[in-house]
Write a structure and sequence with these properties.
Elements (H helix, E strand, L loop, with lengths): L2 H15 L10 H12 L7 H4 L6 H17 L3 H5 L1 E4 L2 E4 L11 H7 L12 E5 L5 H9 L4 E6 L2 H13 L6 E5 L11 E6 L6 H5 L3 H4 L14 H9 L4 E10 L4 H7 L6 E5 L2 E9 H7 L1
Parallel strand pairs: 3-4, 3-6, 4-5, 6-7
Antiparallel strand pairs: 1-2, 7-9, 8-9
């Protein structure tokens, strides 16, 4: 059996088992490829190079066992491997934090909102930092800024600390614990990145097992998904500098957002998943809506 044959067999098993995707991959083939390459200790971008490699019986059995574990536990693949990737950057992950998948990551990498940032920006806040991936990517994208990663969960911050250290950014990223903006006291920021808990109650009740394996604290946003966001938008103007900007991810909750905040006119940023996932608000827009 070759590697590609093992991946195709694994993908067929994942598809037949009805597992859910969306936590690093979007389909059965990519999920099986991830697991197989990780099991063989190959980089995830080397499938073409290794596709026709023959597998020993032991290697084939190990890949099959990992696929079986994915099916029987319904744990996200990232939790099984202890690793996730955003924009080609590797991050440690375990069940203390949600699997990193924010679309803000691609916007940072592509410079999609750089035009809204003041050239003198020096202070960035990654609110609800989780495993710290957006904080790390922000520090990499803007070498001149200092980044604060804040989260309510001490467990998630422990994961984030590993990733900050992994990428050698201890001098550039500060991690703080607290509830929302209370975590950063009276500090003011030029840019706030936030991928908050925004899943509405009905959607929470319908989540597949893979997503229910993640911390509820990082997902559940109340009846309409806007509980955290309401408090954030009320408090944020005092925490932004004069030309400060908020980049906020809300997933599929745009109808709930617009119902909750009809007075706001955000800029909707285009992502690979569409134009309704991430929005931008300036301090002036927030003040005008008060």
């Amino acid at each position: 059996m070759t590697l590609i044959q093992a991946i195709e067999a694994g993908a067929a098993r994942l598809q037949a088992a009805g597992v859910a995707f969306g936590q690093g991959t979007l389909n059965a083939f990519d999920e099986a490829a991830w697991l197989a390459l990780w099991q063989l200790q190959h980089p995830l971008d080397t499938l073409d190079e290794h596709a026709d490699d023959p597998l020993s019986p032991e290697q084939a059995a190990q890949i099959e066992a990992l696929i079986e574990r994915r099916i029987t536990t319904r744990q996200p693949a990232a939790y099984l491997t202890g690793e996730a990737w955003l924009q080609g950057v590797p991050f440690f992950i375990d069940a203390r934090s949600i699997v990193p998948r924010s679309f803000i990551a691609e916007l940072i990498a592509e410079g999609s909102f750089d035009a809204w940032l003041d050239p003198s920006s020096t202070q960035v806040l990654d609110l609800c930092t989780g495993n710290g991936s957006l904080a790390v990517l922000a520090a990499m994208a803007w070498p001149e800024v200092s980044v604060t990663g804040a989260d309510l969960s001490p467990e998630a911050l422990a994961v984030a600390a590993r990733n900050v250290e992994r990428h050698g950014l201890q001098s550039r990223i500060q991690l703080v614990q607290g509830d929302g903006l209370a975590a950063v006291a009276a500090q003011r920021f030029d840019l706030v990145l936030c991928n908050p808990p925004y899943v509405n109650a009905q959607s929470m009740a319908e989540l597949p097992p893979e997503f229910r394996a993640e911390p509820v604290l990082a997902l559940a946003g109340g009846t309409d998904g806007m509980d955290f966001i309401r408090q954030l938008l009320a408090d944020l103007p005092d925490r932004l500098t004069e030309h400060g900007v908020l980049v906020l991810e809300i997933g599929h909750e745009r109808p709930f957002f617009e119902a909750a905040f009809p007075q706001l006119q955000p800029v909707w940023l285009s992502t690979s998943a569409g134009d309704d996932m991430v929005l931008l608000l300036t301090r002036d827009q927030l003040l005008a809506a008060i």
